[in-house]
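FW: tagging you since you asked about this chain on Friday. Here's the raw sequence from the shared folder, copied in full. Didn't touch anything.
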Amino acid sequence: MNAAANLLSVVRNAFWRQFRDRTAAFLGAIVLSLLVLAESLVCVFWIFTLSGLGEGYALMAAFPYLYIILSYSSILIFYRLGRYNYISFTQLAMLLVMPFFMQWVIGGFEASSGVAIWAILSPVGALMILGTRQSTPWFALFMVLSAVSWQLDPNFASNALPIPSYIKDVFFAINLIGVATILYIVMRYFQSQKARVLDDLAIEKARSEQLLLNVLPQSVANRLKQSDIKIADRHEAVTIMFADLVDFTSVSSDMPPDKLVDLLSQVFSRFDHLAEKYGLEKIKTIGDAYMVAGGVPTARQDHAYAVANMALEMHKELAEVSAITGKQLSMRIGINSGPVIAGVIGNTKFSYDLWGDTVNMASRMEQFGLPDVIQVTAATYALLRDDYVLDLRGKIEVKGKGEVDAYILKSKR
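HL: got it, structure written out here
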């Protein structure tokens, strides 16, 4: 399983669900409100215009008036009942049906100046509010009503009352320009929201990428994202360092939890900065222990030098933290060099880790070291002796290894 891809997928899906839930209702309300408002204004024009033509036109004027009453009454009722889905359904239904009824009552396409064109706002609104699949039935109904209206238009026209030509011309312009304007505004708004979503996704992608790089080296993360291969590499020349705070439990025993975490954060943040400064790979922290490596995942000739430089500077950083916090902090550091196996384990909460005798020996160097001392093996001594000052500590007993030579790293020459 591609663990990195899974992590990115989880992060992005969680973000998308959160963003979708937060904005879908708002976006739908804006689009639907704009469509209802636009059709309501057209109805007001028709009401005043038809009412001014005489009593015989009262039935025609009643339909747009009825639409306004039903539309806003349903919004008020369902809003108070908390049935927000019903609001969308009823408004889309009235947006679809009412323009066709108005066209039929007024007397067909010509007499009504093609007022049924406003019904296209219903499937467009359904597309933006409900999504692609749920908008299909609305568009199908629009096509059916258009076909019926076209087929029966001669019958409607035969019963049409006379409407002055200038009124029909004005309303034809209103219908054409109005629908075009509303569609443009809605599509423009939708496009702006799309751009906003893409921008947010780009930001979240960058965050998820950074999160992944906080867990894995960049080269390893890239390999995991590109394929499903298991990462397990052998590196012949690596230097491992373990650092552990001495008697940290007793030093921090009287500290509240937040202060304890803050103290460790101060220490390890400084170590992280040093690891980045010297181009080393932080492997992990376990409690108050810190592990870093040079030469993985990318090989380098000066891996021992880089780790030694960081180790020497860590003592200075720890002394500064002690001065700032008032806590007397000291640590043991153990270093070893040699071959290791490096790879990624696990599918959840996975990690990049190192295995092998070189790692074990580095851990023993720290475990059997002295406070405020950098203890290295003979292998590391052989790599550093020309450019660093090292003293022979002597033989130390290491479980499984017997007696081995240990050296104390003092400084650069």
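FW: The radius of gyration is 37 Å.
HL: agreed, and Residues 1-5 have pLDDT under 50 and may be disordered.
FW: great, closing this out.
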